Amino acid sequence: MTGLIVHRIGFLGPRGTFSEVALRQRPEAEQAQVLPYTSVDTALAALRAGEIDAAVVPIENSVEGGVPATLDSLAHGEPLRVVAEMIVPITFVLAVRPGTRAQDIGAISTHPHAWAQVRGFIAANYSACRYVPATSTAASAVDLAGGAHAWHDATAYQAAICHEMVARDHGLEVLADDIGDNKDAVTRFVLVARPGRMPAATGADKTSVVLFQKIDYPGGLLGLLEQFAVRGINLSRLESRPTGESLGQYCFSLDLDGHLHDARVAEALKGLHRVCAQVRFLGSYPRADGAPVAVSPAHSGRSYEEAEAWLAALEE
Amino acid sequence: MTGLIVHRIGFLGPRGTFSEVALRQRPEAEQAQVLPYTSVDTALAALRAGEIDAAVVPIENSVEGGVPATLDSLAHGEPLRVVAEMIVPITFVLAVRPGTRAQDIGAISTHPHAWAQVRGFIAANYSACRYVPATSTAASAVDLAGGAHAWHDATAYQAAICHEMVARDHGLEVLADDIGDNKDAVTRFVLVARPGRMPAATGADKTSVVLFQKIDYPGGLLGLLEQFAVRGINLSRLESRPTGESLGQYCFSLDLDGHLHDARVAEALKGLHRVCAQVRFLGSYPRADGAPVAVSPAHSGRSYEEAEAWLAALEE
Amino acid sequence: MTGLIVHRIGFLGPRGTFSEVALRQRPEAEQAQVLPYTSVDTALAALRAGEIDAAVVPIENSVEGGVPATLDSLAHGEPLRVVAEMIVPITFVLAVRPGTRAQDIGAISTHPHAWAQVRGFIAANYSACRYVPATSTAASAVDLAGGAHAWHDATAYQAAICHEMVARDHGLEVLADDIGDNKDAVTRFVLVARPGRMPAATGADKTSVVLFQKIDYPGGLLGLLEQFAVRGINLSRLESRPTGESLGQYCFSLDLDGHLHDARVAEALKGLHRVCAQVRFLGSYPRADGAPVAVSPAHSGRSYEEAEAWLAALEE
Amino acid sequence: MTGLIVHRIGFLGPRGTFSEVALRQRPEAEQAQVLPYTSVDTALAALRAGEIDAAVVPIENSVEGGVPATLDSLAHGEPLRVVAEMIVPITFVLAVRPGTRAQDIGAISTHPHAWAQVRGFIAANYSACRYVPATSTAASAVDLAGGAHAWHDATAYQAAICHEMVARDHGLEVLADDIGDNKDAVTRFVLVARPGRMPAATGADKTSVVLFQKIDYPGGLLGLLEQFAVRGINLSRLESRPTGESLGQYCFSLDLDGHLHDARVAEALKGLHRVCAQVRFLGSYPRADGAPVAVSPAHSGRSYEEAEAWLAALEE
User: Which residue of B has its CA nearest to D301?
Assistant: First the structure.
């Protein structure tokens, strides 16, 4: 529990996406109204505008990497805070309208990221089929089933690649299941809120930040990483993203082990604030896997307290 | 000129994409047969299979960042080599069939990356329109024009976002031009070939590599960056990509200033080979902007020669 | 002025040494009783025992390097504090009893460090003379003059190498002056006191510490230096000293630019306290040359305050 | 065996010093003529002049630290090479003329370094005695015994502190033995020759160098240490020495694990040659303790060969 009061939660829709699966993991969702949004941008804009109290969006996939829309939307504009993370195994089925046979399939639709993750299955079994991109895996299924919210003419394809739950919910038949090339694929989702109440430190926490370099800061990324290294802080994610100004201008989006309330993390962030053009704090929150952060004795909270006491004693 | 003998060049199609614009910059394309492919994967697979002699694919956009399909396809499978880079300004137009008025537009189609780059224009002018994803900017225009190669029912949308050239080529009308949010947006394309003849060093070169870490190598990325730092080598691109094995397992795709035939680059790559699980060399090639590499005297070729001579003299 | 109340100051005697010259630079010496000691050890022992309130001892010579007796005595035992530094140009004369001619000189006495610094002069002019070591330059002169405090039989040599002042004071004749091989040689002396009142920060300060490494701390000296580098702190002196336990076990005695009351210095010292077995603080005090410390904007006191305020604001 | 043809070996005399003990460990000394010199400088000058073929001098004491005269003489002037090292346990006796009793002793003589190492014994037993400095421990004994080469009037003291061997050789009586404060004290001596035949690599080697920094090289010592760190090279000794030009101008004298013929050492030295004003190579030679150098697989000779082969293969 984050302690957040959440009446309305948005998610990357439509219903049936992996974002909704992630959302269902959260206790906050039990009593709240859940609202699908057609893009990460619109979900986070609604959150910033106060229309919803929190949003669930994908941030990283173990096969495809970071989700640019989420990384960029969090990195710019009104500050938001990640307050929780959820990990969802990514499994796909090939779904059709009842009665459709494999040989009837001439075109297949799904979200481009899903398409990339079933490449091997398609090459082995449906290499002759056309690909029809969809805005989400769920949308491809919903449209195929002929749902009321169809966004384009569903007659153009005969099969959808989606999560099993959404296929079942819309009366589709599963021709093949677990068709992902990587059976261990997972996507990490984050629960995002407006700044307010930071989740308490649990000893198994993560902190997300975005670092923008000063043009005149020599040493670049190496210098930034040293700020973590001297405080014994491990990074679990690091991605460069263009700042959009010109080729070769990057900011760095990263997750580090530990909580803002850990002395070593606070000191590292202050150190980065001094040498960066901007440090954007995206939140400290419990790790989804609950694994305690390993800290060497030299960088423990106790070691920080002892150093503080030692320094104070020098002043007699 | 790369000195490559190129009879057939593939590119990320269909005709009219920015990849074709990039391809047209190359002298090799003048006499060669040019062939569109429906994806980066299929273009590079055709190259690996010997069906074509080279391929032009996008590798990095100044707004959206690295192109995962290209980065991943180059990082795995049979080795390929980048032999040239091309930079293409990215400008978009809103194209319609002759006679269509702004108020007639209820849905707009384009590639998701293009859609991301015109977000501001859409929000200001067409916020009520539906978005229909397409496999490329060109495909959205071709389909709208009702071309023979239409991939799905074009009746679903009334406007396409594409390059001006392709709109004109297919008889579409431009309702608004230069609609990108970032007027300086560019995409970097690479000309890829099978290993063979490496482009000669020009003094204004770039080298691309992918680094896979050893699990037991302490210090992680910091240790890898130090291999560059001690040889005075600057990085112009750095991206982490998941290896696909599990969350938090990354490889690093990067461009450095200099050529494999520069002593400092050769030594750095050998140093990385020793500490990495794998170093994948993607090629040394001239920079598109022709800007000479700045090298401090301590790391110049002459300094390397002097050090070699000094060491030899210690042996009497 | 250090603000110290000093009734009795010791110095490395006997009278006439360069330590006394250094002592005479201090305003504290004007009203105080000054007492010569026969060694650095005995002077600092008297200070620790409360017999004197301060002591002046040499710490570093621009030609010979650090003074081991001072470095080691400060590094071990009851803590003491450096409260000021004095720089004394080192010039030597060849002094004889009135009437002695160059050709009468068969043996020459002085302190071994002084002997090392006039090596060139001796080789050129008195290469056939024997060397008689003395416990100080002044002692060689005093004994030659036949003073009451002679420590050994003065008949053994006919010339002393000492400071001009002591030669004059004891009625000796100067046969040659400014005979040092290095005309710019200086020795740095320190005024040492018991812990108490730390000199205020002036903007042109130095801090002296001794670092003892943990056996299990990887990276050794490199890791310690990084603690300074990430805070933009420059070192003006660095010496390794054996800990006395076995060959290859060192502690590091060093001076850094800045005062304990500078935020970057305090943070660096706390960082070192965490990773070292022991950090021995030897004091923060004004530089003898009054040169203001150069600090990059990223590491200024203001930058530290801004980072603190930024972090606090994250907590709403 | 170094393979050196040695007819005449010098050592820091007079006879009976620890330098002679070190010399006696060398097989080269068995057939050679051995010659005492009154200082490190004169011994090394004789070696440079070709008067002797090798010299044994002390370089480092486990209690007192580096021997400045040796470090400085090796660092400047005509190049010399260390070809072997010898470790000698340092034990002292209090020696007197037969019949002298403890209560008869009013003054004690020895070399200042020895005096520093028996400080505790003296304080406990002879705190009232005067100290008479001598040019060597052996000289204090020889003079006390009334030898023909006495350098000053021996009547001035009644006891000498020296090695037991020299006391016995000169008919002195031992009043107390093993009087050193540190029972594990050792001194490391080196056998120095003119450049010529470098000792072969044994897998248990050491390399000594002196590094002079460029004024304009940023990062200072940290940058130099990184040249070792990236090649996995451990340092077993590091000392800063003033260059003599001004306070704060240092060169670094150091020993590293490994031989010039190890690929990682050769590469590190070339790297240092590029970034330093001067690298002075003092020799590669077997470790006295015979302990094999620990090398991580990433930095082994085999890893260097594999990296070389990998790079060559990139050129097809």
Answer: B274
pLDDT one-digit tens code per residue, C186-213 = 999 999 999 988 999 999 999 999 999 9
User: How far apart are the CA of A259 and the nearest CA of chain C, in angstroms?
Assistant: 12
- Separation in Å, CA D98 to CA A287, D101, D134: 81, 9, 21
- Tell me the H-state helices in C196-249: 220-229
Q: Which residues of B touch D306 (CB under 8 A)?
A: 273-274
Angstrom CA distances, C142 to A307, C17, C145, C196, D155, stand at 50, 11, 5, 37, 19
Q: Residue C186 corresponds to which tokens in the numbers above?
A: 């200086």
Q: Write out chain C's pLDDT in tens, 316 residues.
A: 566 778 999 999 888 889 999 999 999 899 999 999 988 989 999 999 999 999 999 999 888 888 988 999 999 999 999 999 999 999 999 999 999 999 999 999 998 889 988 988 998 999 889 888 888 899 899 889 974 334 444 447 899 999 998 999 999 999 999 999 988 899 999 999 999 889 999 999 999 999 999 875 556 888 899 999 999 999 988 888 888 777 778 899 999 999 999 999 999 999 999 999 999 999 999 999 999 999 999 999 999 999 999 999 998 6
**ipTM of the assembly?**
0.88
Residue D297 preceded by cis peptide, ω within 30: no
Ranges of each domain in chain D = 1-90+185-196, 93-177, 198-316
Are the CB atoms for D55 and D11 separated by under 8 Å?
yes
Answer yes or no: CATH 3.40.190.10 is held by domain D1-90+185-196. yes
Specify whether the CB–CB gap between B297 and B236 falls below 8 A. no
pLDDT given at position B10: 97
A314 touches chain C (CB under 8 A): yes
- Yes or no, beta carbons of C274 and A217 under 8 Å apart: no
CB contact under 8 A, C304 and A195: no
Residue D151 reports pLDDT greater than 50: no
Average pLDDT value for chain C: 90
Q: Which fold has domain D198-316?
A: Alpha-Beta Plaits (3.30.70)
- Nearest by CB to residue B230, choosing from D226, D260, D269, is D226
Q: What is the pLDDT of residues C206-236, one digit of tens each?
A: 999 999 998 755 568 888 999 999 999 999 8
Tell me if chain D has a CB within 8 Å of the CB of B314: yes
Measured between alpha carbons, how far is residue A60 from residues A64, A74, A188, B215, B247 in Å? 8, 13, 5, 21, 8
> Looking at beta carbons, which residues of chain D come within 8 Å of C131?
38, 135, 151
The answer to whether B107 contacts chain A (CB < 8 Å) is: yes
Per the CB < 8 Å rule, is A311 touching C266?
yes
What homologous superfamily does CATH list for C1-90+185-197?
A: Periplasmic binding protein-like II (3.40.190.10)
Q: B152 pLDDT band (50/70/90 cuts)?
A: very low
CATH class of C93-177: alpha beta
A71: distance to nearest CA of chain C, Å?
20
Query: Domain A1-89+185-196 falls in which CATH fold?
Result: D-Maltodextrin-Binding Protein; domain 2 (3.40.190)
The answer to whether D200 faces chain B, any CB pair under 8 Å, is: no
Closest CB to B274: pick one of D195, D275, D307: D307
The SS3 assignment for D75 reads helix
Which among D68, D157, D246 is the nearest to C62, CB-wise? Answer: D246
Instruction: Tell me if chain C has a CB within 8 Å of the CB of A175.
Output: no
What's the gap in Å between the CA of D270 and the closest CA on chain B?
5
pTM for this prediction: 0.89
Q: List, as ranges, residues 127-146 from B with C-beta within 8 Å of A.
A: 130-135
Please list, residue by residue across B264-275, b when 16 or more beta carbons sit within 10 angstroms of its beta carbon and e when fewer do: bbbbbbbbbbbb
- CB–CB of B236 and A248 under 8 A? yes
Distance from CA of D161 to the nearest CA of C (A): 16
Give tens-digit pLDDT for D31-75.
Answer: 999 999 988 989 999 999 999 999 999 999 888 888 988 999 999
pLDDT at C245: 73
**Could you check whether D93-177 and D198-316 share the same CATH topology?**
no
**Cβ neighbours around C300 below 10 Å, total:** 16
Gap from A230 CA to chain C (nearest CA, Å): 6
